[in-house]
Amino acid sequence: MQYRLLGINTPQFCNFAYIGYRSMDESRLNILNESNRMLSKLQLLSVFFGEDIIYKIYLRSQVIHKLFETNPELDINKLDLFHLQFTATLVELLRKIKKNNENNISLLFDEIQLNKEMIEKLNDSVYTEQNFNLDKQRQALKINLSLRKLFQVLSDDLADNPFSKNINAFSSRFAPDFFFNIEPGLFDDLVTYKPNEVYTNSYATIQKRLMGLLCKYDFKTEFFCGLKSGSQIAEVYKFVEANNYFLYSPPRDLFVFCDITRINGIDWSNNLSKKEKLINELNDKNDQLESSAGAMKSSMPAEIKTLLAEDYKKIEDINFLQNLSNIDVQANMLKTMLNTDLN
């Protein structure tokens, strides 16, 4: 009766009121659902980067969401405005950093793969340190037997070839990768001798004093190192029971004493071939690249961290609803970062 007196059609008015409330409820529900989706995105990014400040922002944003969710009297549009001005831009910025990091990591893994392919190719053709160590023992045995026979040939004035079979194969195989480089002038000095100080026949030339020392120590020597200078090569041997060295020059069939102290700047303990050294360098490089990739995955520029710390202070303010203009300022700063080259 009262509605009729006011001139209001009661059923029609109630219908409009119901529709209005339903529309408001749907709008509120949509905003809350969208807020939850935005928070889920922010949570995933906080886990990816592992930065405390991002996780704090996520937790504070959850508190803000809960505030609107449990207080229907609050203007839900302010929550929507908060996400629009701040969270959406922050998520976009973090995604850009993540993508940039992933692109850089992709470049690192491309380099790692190229290094692995190079290592495989080198391994297919390399003479390893193990090969070298085994063969130099065999070569020392050949040299000792050859020198023992040379002594007999010279003593008995025989025409026999004193050298063991394939005695020069060792240098041909290992000189490119395992022999040490020295200056041409030094190499020439090392193979120089006085004619009156050597025994010579059609097969070999050897210093008289060296032959005497070999006899004294029963021809017991071991391979010490290989030397090369351009196309010239030489093998250096050490007496097992004495601190004396001699040099064997395969092209000249020459045996002369070698003053090892004249050869400077060489790590005599390093028996790695050039290819093995390169393989080791490539493996070390890949270890460094993989370590860098792990650190790079979630790296973040320092200026971004500083800005996020400032953002957190803004949204931590209990009066943030009255200070949405400040959030807007921070959003603009985030957008500026988005337009900055992060490479």
Entry keywords:
343 residues, alpha/beta, 7 strands, 10% strand, disordered N terminus
Q: How many structural units, i.e. domains?
A: 2
Rg result? 42 Å
Low-confidence stretches: 1-8, 16-20
Q: What kind of sheet is the major sheet?
A: 7 strands, mixed
What would you call the shape? Answer: rod-shaped
Provide the β-strand percentage band.
5-15%
- Average pLDDT across residues? 85
Helix content: 55-70%
Oligomer: single chain
What is the H-and-E element order? HHHHHHEHEEHEEEEHHH
How far do the termini sit from each other?
74 Å
Largest beta sheet: strand ordering: 1-4-5-6-7-3-2
Extended strand count: 7
Could you say which structural class the secondary elements and strand pairing correspond to?
Answer: alpha/beta
Number of continuous helical runs: 11
Describe this structure in words.
By secondary structure, the protein is of the alpha/beta class. The chain folds into 2 domains: 2-109 and 297-338, no CATH class; 127-272, no CATH class. Helices cover 64% and strands 10% of the residues. Strands 1-4-5-6-7-3-2 form a 7-stranded mixed beta sheet, sandwiched between helices. The longest helix has 50 residues, at 76-125. It is rod-shaped and about 120 Å long. It starts with a helix and ends in a 5-residue tail after the last helix.
In short:
This protein has helices spanning 2-5, 10-49, 52-70, 76-125, 129-156, 169-178, 184-190, 208-216, 274-296, 302-316, 324-338; strands at residues 180-181, 198-200, 205-207, 221-229, 232-239, 245-249, 254-257. The protein has 343 residues and is an alpha/beta fold.
